[in-house]
Amino acid sequence: QLQKDLEEVKELLTKATRKRLRDVLMTEKHKLELEIKNQPPPKPKDVAEEEKSSLGGYTVKINNYGWDQSDKFIKIYISLNGVQKLPAENVQVNFTERSFDLLVKNLNGKNYTMTFNNLLKPISVEGSSRKIKTDTVLVMCRKKREEKWECLTQVEKESKEKEKAAYDTSDPSEGLMNLLKKMYAEGDDEMKRTINKAWVESREKQSKGDIPMDI
């Protein structure tokens, strides 16, 4: 498109007689020539088609994984059937100090992605890598400091702390009440009947002054 614009400007220059118009056209001509010069070279058709096919198809977000740790590494295991058959360049992981992105291209006609943001602690970008095993991708995050991680991300840590705070109060009866509410909300009918019975018996004992509220 730029080349066509340039040809048209050159055509107009041959017909222009007024200096002001010629100056404008010359400026536009130089501008177009510069844009064309700075354009990236076109990719060969076969390369462009290959890239298109490798990124084409359905993209699946990976949510299931397992993880483990050693003194030096956080290890994330992602199960993907047949991943070992792919060319190595089709399994890409980009690391930053507190995150990583995994992209698996063209596995059985699909692309697979996984993103971890806000890792609990900093990792070494240079020391981190990925390994391809039978039906598994292993992401190796090199710890900057050799210390145990209680979870993978900062979000997980905050969620655990909030949950702990809800049931860890200075008032034992308040903590017990919170725990009972959670059990009642998540329990089946049998669990609810058991909790109701215990609650009634506890209230009766408390009203008689036998014992403080307890179960």
UniProtKB/TrEMBL annotation:
<keyword id="KW-0963">Cytoplasm</keyword>
<dbReference type="InterPro" id="IPR037201">
    <property type="entry name" value="CacyBP_N"/>
</dbReference>
<dbReference type="GO" id="GO:0005737">
    <property type="term" value="C:cytoplasm"/>
</dbReference>
<keyword id="KW-0833">Ubl conjugation pathway</keyword>
<comment type="function">
    <text>May be involved in calcium-dependent ubiquitination and subsequent proteasomal degradation of target proteins. Probably serves as a molecular bridge in ubiquitin E3 complexes. Participates in the ubiquitin-mediated degradation of beta-catenin (CTNNB1).</text>
</comment>
<keyword id="KW-0597">Phosphoprotein</keyword>
<keyword id="KW-0007">Acetylation</keyword>
<keyword id="KW-0539">Nucleus</keyword>
<dbReference type="Pfam" id="PF05002">
    <property type="entry name" value="SGS"/>
</dbReference>
<dbReference type="GO" id="GO:0007507">
    <property type="term" value="P:heart development"/>
</dbReference>
<feature type="domain" description="SGS">
    <location>
        <begin position="138"/>
        <end position="215"/>
    </location>
</feature>
<dbReference type="GO" id="GO:0015631">
    <property type="term" value="F:tubulin binding"/>
</dbReference>
<protein>
    <recommendedName>
        <fullName>Calcyclin-binding protein</fullName>
    </recommendedName>
</protein>
<dbReference type="InterPro" id="IPR008978">
    <property type="entry name" value="HSP20-like_chaperone"/>
</dbReference>
<dbReference type="GO" id="GO:0005634">
    <property type="term" value="C:nucleus"/>
</dbReference>
<dbReference type="InterPro" id="IPR007052">
    <property type="entry name" value="CS_dom"/>
</dbReference>
<feature type="domain" description="CS">
    <location>
        <begin position="60"/>
        <end position="153"/>
    </location>
</feature>
<dbReference type="InterPro" id="IPR015120">
    <property type="entry name" value="Siah-Interact_N"/>
</dbReference>
<dbReference type="InterPro" id="IPR052289">
    <property type="entry name" value="Calcyclin-binding_UBL-bridge"/>
</dbReference>
<dbReference type="Pfam" id="PF09032">
    <property type="entry name" value="Siah-Interact_N"/>
</dbReference>
<dbReference type="GO" id="GO:0044548">
    <property type="term" value="F:S100 protein binding"/>
</dbReference>
<dbReference type="Pfam" id="PF04969">
    <property type="entry name" value="CS"/>
</dbReference>
<dbReference type="GO" id="GO:0031625">
    <property type="term" value="F:ubiquitin protein ligase binding"/>
</dbReference>
<dbReference type="InterPro" id="IPR007699">
    <property type="entry name" value="SGS_dom"/>
</dbReference>
<dbReference type="InterPro" id="IPR037893">
    <property type="entry name" value="CS_CacyBP"/>
</dbReference>
<feature type="compositionally biased region" description="Basic and acidic residues">
    <location>
        <begin position="43"/>
        <end position="52"/>
    </location>
</feature>
<feature type="region of interest" description="Disordered">
    <location>
        <begin position="33"/>
        <end position="52"/>
    </location>
</feature>
